[in-house]
């Protein structure tokens, strides 16, 4: 692997996802965590899956913008919705799956599909998860 360009540092304390906290070393992220109601918890605070979804959505959106700019394609009204699901595994543990939905204005469906495919090849989150979790990627043009 090549030399790091940036390293994010965060620490989880307390009871982890069950009422603990997570914070970045620079203090910009400082959040209480909670188990979602859907998993039998109290809800009312963020959870690791939401944080992962937010990070991947932002990263993938940046990858889309970079790929479009590199191809000299102007896109408007773009957004990326990331859905991260936690699933039971056959051995009684838990795993993740993901769906990334890119939304565009100002381009045709074929161009949108091509941009999404190219972004999925360069996005660091996509590269980190490739072959590790099921991922669905699609594009919608308004």
Describe the structure.
- By secondary structure, this protein is an alpha+beta fold.
- The chain contains three helices and six strands.
- The protein has a three-stranded antiparallel sheet with strand order 1-2-3, with no helix packed on it. A three-stranded mixed sheet has the order 4-5-6.
- It is globular, with a radius of gyration of 17 Å.
- The model has no long low-confidence stretch (mean pLDDT 96).
Content of β-strand: 25-35%
The class by helix and strand makeup works out as: alpha+beta
Tertiary shape: globular
Radius of gyration: 17 Å
Distance between the termini: 39 Å
Average of per-residue pLDDT values: 96
The helix content, as a percent range, equals 25-40%
What is the count of helical runs?
A: 3
H and E string: EEEHEEHHE
Low-confidence stretches: none
User: Quick one: how many beta strands?
Assistant: 6
Biggest sheet strand order reads 1-2-3
Largest sheet: 3 strands, antiparallel
């Amino acid at each position: 692997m090549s030399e790091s360009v940036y390293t994010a540092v965060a620490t989880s304390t307390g009871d982890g996802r069950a009422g603990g906290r997570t914070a970045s070393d620079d203090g910009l992220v400082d959040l209480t965590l909670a188990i979602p109601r859907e998993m039998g918890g109290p809800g009312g605070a963020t959870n690791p899956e939401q944080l992962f979804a937010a990070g991947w959505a932002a990263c993938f959106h940046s990858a889309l913008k970079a790929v479009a700019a590199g191809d000299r394609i102007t896109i408007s009204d773009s957004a990326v919705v990331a859905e991260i699901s936690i699933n039971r595994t056959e051995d009684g543990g838990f795993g993740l799956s993901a769906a990334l939905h890119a939304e565009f204005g100002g381009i045709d469906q074929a161009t949108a599909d091509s941009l999404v495919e190219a972004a999925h090849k360069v996005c660091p989150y996509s590269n980190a998860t490739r072959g590790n979790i099921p991922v669905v990627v699609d594009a919608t043009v308004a």
